[in-house]
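Budget justification aside, the reviewers requested a transparent look at the raw inputs and outputs of the sequence design task funded under Objective 1. We therefore reproduce one unedited record. The lines immediately below are the structure tokens for a 367-residue chain.
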């Protein structure tokens, strides 16, 4: 990855606006089909709670049976394609021999449970202690869709690197590319920040204010300003009103050709149309930290959301490292392994620490 090129690629998306007559009717039909498509995508990414409970019961039953999964269940069958990172831990460690592990962690749904109020997605003290411990042994970064300041407010660990807004706001060490210096909440000292979408800040603020106003009549909706993207949470919105949420967001976004709408777990997001994502953020961090030699480094990325797939794809493309999807339901993914929930994420991180401590003691004994 070239850190010295001029800027990420920006592509203007053409929108048909301000049309009249037959062409306007055509656009209305296109908008209607688009809204229907979004609603279907939202349903697919938000499995009914009844379905989740059934899968959890199956999982609990199998855990009581020596931890085995029935391959006849959907989740059990999926595990043959995307096995547990806990049961596959020895395999991961074998491939880590002679290499330095670098950890990249999503936040919501990975280090904290998904909750109805996004402002209350706090991590447990035990998870924080685990992440602090793992960061003693491995370079560790948080890569989140939240604003960098907000995710740091949740994690509260200064020994980590933080990439907020899906990697569009990264705290980095000294390098000479897209860097601005500022006094940061993570440290009283000057810090370097990489912000490839900085020019979009006024536009994002404008869209945030517009969305707050346009969605205020939709019960349960929550608009969050994540600095370089705007998140519209519909987790607490009645499904019959999802249509209204999509229309509100689409009506605003189509007036901004340089912004796009994406979706995650019960959230719609408005982001700049630039060639940048969590995969690019991981690549950037690896290079800026001097960890871009695939023969010497084993990157591990753990995340639960659609946006994390860009990082999983990167690791597959580089043919190094592992993506680990956090999910309690079967999903199409480019991850190599899976973990069910944040509690399994914590156990996996603890396993890494135990392995590293044991390895260090063994090296001392051999001296």
């Amino acid at each position: 990855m070239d850190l010295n090129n001029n800027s990420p690629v920006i592509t203007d998306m053409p929108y048909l606006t301000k049309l009249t007559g037959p062409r306007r009717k055509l656009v209305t039909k296109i908008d209607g089909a688009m809204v229907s498509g979004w609603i279907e995508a939202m349903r697919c990414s938000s499995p009914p709670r009844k379905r989740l409970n059934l899968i959890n019961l199956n999982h609990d039953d199998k855990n009581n049976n020596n931890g085995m999964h029935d391959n006849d269940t959907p989740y059990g069958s999926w595990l043959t394609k995307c096995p547990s990172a806990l049961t596959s831990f020895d395999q991961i460690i074998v491939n880590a021999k002679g290499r330095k592990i670098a950890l990249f962690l999503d936040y919501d749904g990975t280090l904290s449970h998904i909750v109805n109020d996004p402002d209350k997605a706090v991590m447990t003290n035990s998870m924080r202690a685990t992440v602090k411990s793992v960061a003693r042994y491995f370079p560790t970064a948080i890569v989140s869709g939240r604003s960098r300041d907000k995710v740091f407010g949740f994690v509260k660990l200064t020994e980590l690197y933080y990439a907020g807004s899906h990697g569009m706001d990264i705290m980095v060490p000294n390098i000479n590319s897209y860097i601005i210096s500022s006094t940061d909440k993570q440290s009283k000292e000057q810090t370097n920040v990489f912000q490839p979408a900085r020019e979009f800040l006024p536009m994002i603020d404008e869209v945030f204010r517009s969305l707050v106003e346009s969605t205020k009549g939709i019960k349960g909706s929550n608009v969050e300003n994540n600095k370089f993207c705007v998140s519209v949470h519909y987790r607490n919105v009645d499904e019959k009103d999802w249509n209204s949420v999509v229309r509100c967001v689409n009506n605003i976004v189509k007036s901004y050709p340089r912004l796009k709408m994406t979706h995650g777990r019960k959230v719609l997001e408005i982001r700049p149309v630039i060639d940048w994502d969590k995969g690019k953020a991981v690549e950037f961090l690896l290079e800026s930290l001097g960890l871009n030699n695939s023969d010497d480094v084993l990157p591990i990325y753990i995340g639960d959301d659609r946006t994390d797939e860009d990082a999983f794809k990167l690791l597959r493309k580089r043919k190094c490292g592992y993506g680990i999807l956090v999910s309690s339901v079967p999903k199409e993914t480019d991850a190599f392994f899976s973990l069910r929930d944040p509690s399994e994420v914590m156990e996996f991180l603890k396993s890494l620490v135990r392995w590293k401590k044991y390895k260090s003691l063994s090296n001392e004994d051999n001296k």
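The mean pLDDT is 83. Residues 21-44 form the longest helix (24 residues). Computational costs for records of this kind are itemized in the attached budget.
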